[in-house]
Amino acid sequence: GVKGNGELLEFGLSVAMEEPETFDSFVKKIREKTNIPLQYSKGREEVNRVFVIAGSGKGMTEEILAAGCDCVTTGESSYHDMLDLKERGISCICLGHDESEKISVDTLAKLINDKFDSVKAASYIEESLVKYI
């Protein structure tokens, strides 16, 4: 339920929602789509613009505020960063560092493979990689 492709920033993506959504409903959708346990804190009741970053979102509070986001989805965030975000009215959803990178790398590999015929980008979750992690 996002509007367009969003705005690519230096360390993330800022995406506007098509329609404002309650935070609880947004968390439920993410949980259903990813099927992974989530850690989250509610900074406000409604989600209008989401900052998306794979891996660690540590120390990204100022960038999130500058992007005008009221919610962030990230791989991980420290307890204190989550408290800081919440105090500033920004909700935070943590997918797990490895889980967020798997999703991102799979998407990036698909984009590369679709764009370049002579290149074969490997997916992060290929069986040969996973068994050694």
Keywords:
133 residues; alpha/beta; six-stranded mixed beta sheet; 5 helices; 6 strands; 38% helix; globular; disordered C terminus
Write the topology of this structure.
Elements (H helix, E strand, L loop, with lengths): L1 E7 L4 E10 H12 L4 E3 L4 E7 L8 H6 L4 E4 L4 H9 L3 E4 L2 H19 L11 H4 L3
Parallel strand pairs: 4-5, 5-6
Antiparallel strand pairs: 1-2, 2-4, 3-6
Could you explain how this protein is built, in words?
This protein has five helices and six strands, in the order E-E-H-E-E-H-E-H-E-H-H. Helix content is 38%, strand content 26%. A hairpin with a 4-residue loop joins strand 1 (2-8) and strand 2. The protein has 133 residues and is an alpha/beta fold. Strands 1-2-4-5-6-3 form a six-stranded mixed β-sheet.
In brief, what are we looking at here?
With 133 residues, the chain is of the alpha/beta class. The chain contains five helices and six strands.
- The first-to-last residue Cα distance is 33 Å
Compute the number of helices. Answer: 5
- Beta-strand segment tally: 6
User: Which percent range fits the helix content?
Assistant: 25-40%
**Stretches with pLDDT under 50, minimum 5 residues:** 126-133
| Mean pLDDT value | 82
Which outline best applies? globular
How does the major sheet shape up? 6 strands, mixed
Structural class: alpha/beta
Q: Compute the gyration radius: what is it?
A: 15 Å
β-sheet strand percentage: 25-35%
